[in-house]
Amino acid sequence: VKIFAPNIEQRDVINHLKGSPAEEKRNVLVESARLARGNIQDLAELKASEFDAVIFPGGFGVAKNLCSWAVDGKNCTVNEHVNSTLQAFHSAKKPIGLCCISPVLAAKVFPGCEVTVGQDKNVDGRFPDAETASAIAELGCKHICKNVNESHVDKANKIVTTCAFMCKAPLHEIFDGIGTMVQEVLKLA
């Protein structure tokens, strides 16, 4: 297992204590190294031939830094190294795991694929970003409704997705869904 991140400037920096933007600049690779305790490499160095699968975590950083979904929605662009990584694994017929908001990366890069970001309706207030499912469909992909503790496997494309924090759920349910995604990716590897 190796961890990679793009060597780019973050779109913005948020002070999570206050919930507001901070007036500073940070690098995605440097911040990712802080979280990974330094054991990380530049995404530009990743070679699909050296790995059995790739998994992209989710989070708002994906929607802001790995692509421009947070600003542009379905009209977003995908970071060139993220795009080439996804394309390389897909071309090599190696599994791709995506959770939380990161299934939109597959929706942009692989028209016609199947993904989940949870539900397409805000069921009991648990899916406040349910409109993402409609945007995925507008991109020519099929959104599959799943509960937070489940994942979806697009066998034709070897893409495994789960909604994670796209659902307001207890952490143990989110953990279970991410666990099923990882298990399914490993089965396909």
From TrEMBL:
SUPFAM superfamilies linked to this entry: Class I glutamine amidotransferase-like
Domain of life of the source: Eukaryota
InterPro entries (UniProt xref): Class_I_gatase-like
PANTHER family per record: ES1 PROTEIN HOMOLOG, MITOCHONDRIAL, GLUTAMINE AMIDOTRANSFERASE LIKE CLASS 1 DOMAIN CONTAINING 3A-LIKE1-RELATED
The name this protein goes by in its record: GAL3A protein
Native source species: Sitta europaea
